[in-house]
């Protein structure tokens, strides 16, 4: 999911067509008005002609225009009334723009690391939020929404974090990384609590099938957000194994791996995998004990809640480049074939998700494709295409 320029341009170009501001006509109008002011042409009113019935033609034309104007105003008033009603009253009408973007307020911002924060959004007072149930697949869908950058009129997708216990139904939460030089992520990180933002959606990135056997998530950075959604959706009904790679420990503070020791690098566990985040040659791996002693980061805490909800069927392993524990040479087939819970449904679908920055996805599963202005999965490439994944479906998010 990480922004590469090609992706950024494509994402920007699609929505920008419908979001382009209407500055040009205003400028044209200003020009004409100014020109008129400087015109010193005397104004001449001809005598008013009569129609065939002897009426003042200008008057009858005026009454026709008046009638049409009243009709148009009434129709407009009715459509505004209908729009307001559909959006839950006066506040609702103001919350949804013509381009379908809905106004929210940043109700909270929780720093997860020096580059990542969890944003909590609430619809503006009296307004209605986006209809989450409208996404195809409902609760089984991995959902994202578009955030608008109003000055540049561009939009970017961000994945919803699954709701926490006690979270209001119309509240939305996101894990957003501030990309260096990133237009939309930079804009969002500059906003203060209480500021207005506009979002549109939801979009279903993937709908989990009814019967899921096992799920393996290769998540890089903020690619953990769809993993959280998927793990929540199938908690207790399928085996879920999340492999989460980060550049720095600060993004997954306090996270202790379930199956990979912090002291062991990936290379000791597997052969054939490599992380695009890798910074080879760095020394100084933290020990498991030291890891547990550290306070837990917010995403780590949420993963642990999911592990409890998953009743022993959710496992998480953490990989930090700076600790030389990056994903590199491994035997992926071991992970794919191994079953860590006896309840795994043999008849259920086995899915391997690869989610994260574009480079991460490309490396593991090959790049996504663009067809008719839409991003599609594209053929399986990268490391996974060389492995025997048997009947596993690979999904790029
Ligand atoms: C379905 C989906 C879900 C996503 N979910 C999340 C999520 O939950 N959380 C999250 O943080 N992200 C998520 N993303 C990524 C997100 O949509 C954005 O791509 C990301 O935030 C970067 O957008 P930006 O506008 O900030 O950066 P952009 O302005 O697009 O820039 C991206 C990068 O390219 C560089 N760049 C830009 N222009 C140039 C140039 N001319 N030359 C060289 N370099 C350049 C910038 O410096 C920056 O590092 C998701 C993406 C998708 C497709």
From TrEMBL:
Key words of the record: FAD, Flavoprotein, Membrane, Oxidoreductase
Localization in the cell: Membrane
Keyword Cell cycle recorded: no
Lineage: superkingdom: Eukaryota
One GO term describing the cellular component: mitochondrion
Region (Disordered), start-end ranges: 1-56
Main location: membrane
GO MF annotations, alphabetized: oxidoreductase activity
Database matches in CDD domains: cyt_b5_reduct_like
InterPro entries (alphabetical): CBR-like, Cbr1-like_FAD-bd_dom, FAD-bd_FR_type, FNR_nucleotide-bd, Riboflavin_synthase-like_b-brl
Pfam families, per database record: FAD_binding_6
Entry's family note: Belongs to the flavoprotein pyridine nucleotide cytochrome reductase family.
Protein name: FAD-binding FR-type domain-containing protein
